């Protein structure tokens, strides 16, 4: 998988590469090792990943610049460093959770281990936003159904929402990942991939991940040089549809107006809206990366050049 990333990013001498999803730093380090003249700006919203990037920066002085924040914080983080419109050679989005996040049971990202239903990528110290537990206890049935149907693409969205509401009304507890799995098992008869999608839908909502992704792709258009490369690895069909729609000039989201929470990601916004795309595909076909992480089941790699 790392080879595919390098093959598509092709960092040239002196290139500045922006890794929008540093995670555990696998891709960033691979890029740094590929050429001693390349510089990597490494962004992540997770404080644990940011600490890791700060440690790695000692190994690559002046070549690895750790940045802490969300995709939407990017302008505030890089403009003061002198990076403006058209200043970046390549950008990389590897969507989803890092192994660091999945393996820390106190974060509540995995349905396979027991932990509190937190799911905030910004870390537990973040006082912004709801935890998944708070979401399950405050959202109404329609909102919950929409989260599962739209974000999780789950036909059983209504059934899941009903089961959770019923539990709430009967004073049942869904505090932990195991509690949630138990409700899904007892009341919804879901296949294991649907349980995974249920967790992912909650995580998308808690972190506003789909708006962030859409915003991030628009920022790539702004910050990449002409001829600059953008590589994306999506985690599922929902993310891939958002990315694909941007690349074909039919973005289905509107991050600048109302939040696109609950919007349909399969239809272009405003029905007929088609933008002249600035992206040219590198591969004719989407690549399906071979599994190298815990959550690798339906990932897709797309690579484009900014024209
Ligand atoms: C799949 S991991 C990346 C793994 C990384 N490529 C590696 O080699 O280890 C995705 C990372 O993106 C971060 N992330 C997700 N959404 C983000 C956002 N909107 N802004 C900044 N970081 C984000 C997550 O915190 C997570 O660490």
Bound molecules: S-adenosylmethionine
Overall CATH class of the largest domain? Alpha Beta
Q: How many E strands?
A: 7
Total helical elements: 12
Outline, from the CA principal axes?
A: globular
CATH superfamily of the largest domain: Vaccinia Virus protein VP39
Number of domains: 2
In whole angstroms, the N-to-C terminal distance is 26 Å
- Shape-level CATH architecture of the largest domain: 3-Layer(aba) Sandwich
Strand order, biggest sheet?
Answer: 3-2-1-4-5-7-6
The overall average pLDDT, rounded, is 88
Q: Per DSSP, what share of the residues sits in E-state strands of 2 or more residues?
A: 5-15%
Rounded to the nearest angstrom, the radius of gyration is 19 Å
Explain this structure.
The chain is α/β, with parallel strands linked by helices and 307 residues long. It has two domains: 2-94 and 212-306, Vaccinia Virus protein VP39 (Rossmann fold, 3-Layer(aba) Sandwich); 106-207, Orthogonal Bundle (DNA polymerase, domain 1). The protein has twelve helices and seven strands. The chain has helices at residues 2-9, 26-34, 47-59, 74-78, 99-103, 132-138, 141-151, 157-169, 177-187, 192-207, 209-223, 237-247; strands at residues 16-19, 39-44, 64-68, 88-94, 224-234, 279-281, 300-306. It has a seven-stranded mixed beta sheet. The longest helix is centred in the middle third of the chain and has 16 residues, at 192-207. The radius of gyration is 19 Å and the shape is globular. Mean pLDDT is 88; it is low at 254-260 and 262-273. S-adenosylmethionine (SAM) is lined by residues 21, 23-27, 43-46, 49, 70-71, 94, 96-98, 121, 209, 212.
């Amino acid at each position: 998988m790392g080879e595919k990333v390098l093959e598509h990013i092709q960092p040239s001498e002196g290139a500045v590469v922006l890794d929008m999803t540093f995670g555990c730093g696998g891709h960033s380090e691979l890029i740094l090792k590929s050429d001693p003249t390349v510089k990597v700006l490494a962004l992540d919203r997770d404080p644990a990943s940011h600490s890791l990037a700060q440690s790695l920066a000692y190994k690559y002085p002046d070549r690895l610049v750790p940045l802490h924040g969300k995709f939407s914080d990017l302008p505030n983080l890089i403009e003061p460093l002198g990076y403006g419109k058209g200043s970046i050679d390549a950008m990389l989005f590897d969507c989803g959770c890092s192994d660091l996040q999945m393996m820390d049971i106190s974060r509540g990202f995995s349905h396979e281990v027991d932990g509190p239903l937190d799911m905030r990528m910004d870390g537990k110290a973040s006082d912004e936003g709801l935890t998944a537990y708070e979401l399950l206890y405050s959202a109404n049935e329609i909102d919950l159904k929409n989260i599962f149907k739209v974000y999780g693409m789950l036909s059983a969205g209504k059934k899941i929402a009903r089961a959770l509401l019923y539990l709430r009304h009967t004073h049942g507890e869904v505090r932990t990942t195991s509690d949630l799995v138990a409700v899904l098992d007892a009341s919804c008869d879901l296949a294991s991939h649907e349980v995974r999608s249920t967790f992912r839908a909650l995580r998308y909502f808690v972190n506003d991940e789909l708006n962030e992704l859409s915003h991030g792709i628009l920022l790539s258009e702004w910050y990449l040089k002409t001829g600059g490369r953008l590589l994306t690895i999506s985690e599922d069909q929902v993310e891939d549809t958002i990315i694909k729609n941007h690349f074909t000039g039919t973005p289905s989201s509107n991050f600048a107006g109302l939040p696109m929470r609950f919007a349909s990601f399969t239809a272009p916004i405003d029905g007929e809206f088609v933008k002249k795309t600035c992206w040219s595909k590198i591969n004719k076909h989407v690549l399906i990366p071979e599994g190298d992480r815990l959550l690798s089941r339906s990932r897709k790699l797309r690579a484009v050049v900014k024209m």
